[in-house]
């Protein structure tokens, strides 16, 4: 799980969000609603779809390209829970919330990396401990 979260507002343009994601080398940004209506996420896929549709990335706002239904994880979720939610929902980034706060983002890359470490024994925490928790990935 990545705990250094990139945040953008719904009024940012897609180009601004894409530039910030590229500078940070991340594939998503949390969209914080200034009116307090919850959190959303914008991803590289959203930017790619906008480019494919011929939209002007300098004129289109992030708030117009966020999903209407968002799946959130809690820090107690296992990596298997996160992977299952992402596979079922067909998305690659999952916000982790603790109460009203976004505390991290889990990406498919995070899950694969953690599973690879478990398989190769680089991050042995004891096989009897069960799958890693999202909050510790």
TrEMBL record:
InterPro entries: CBS_dom, CBS_dom_sf, Diverse_CBS-Domain. It holds the Pfam family CBS. It comes from the Bacteria. The keyword Aminoacyl-tRNA synthetase does not apply. Residues 1-57, 66-122 form the CBS domain. Keywords: CBS domain. The keyword Transcription regulation does not apply. This is CBS domain-containing protein. It comes from Patulibacter brassicae.
């Amino acid at each position: 799980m990545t705990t250094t979260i990139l945040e953008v507002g719904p009024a940012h343009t897609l180009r601004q969000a894409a530039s910030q994601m590229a500078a940070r080398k991340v594939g998503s940004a949390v969209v914080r609603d200034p009116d307090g209506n919850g959190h959303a996420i914008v991803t590289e896929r959203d930017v790619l779809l906008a480019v494919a549709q011929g939209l002007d990335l300098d004129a289109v706002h992030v708030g117009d390209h966020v999903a209407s239904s968002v799946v959130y994880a809690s820090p107690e979720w296992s990596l298997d829970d996160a992977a299952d939610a992402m596979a079922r929902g067909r998305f690659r980034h999952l916000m982790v919330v603790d109460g009203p706060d976004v505390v991290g983002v889990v990406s498919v890359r995070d899950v694969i990396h953690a599973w690879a470490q478990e398989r190769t024994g680089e991050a042995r925490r004891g096989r009897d401990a069960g799958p890693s928790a999202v909050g510790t990935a």
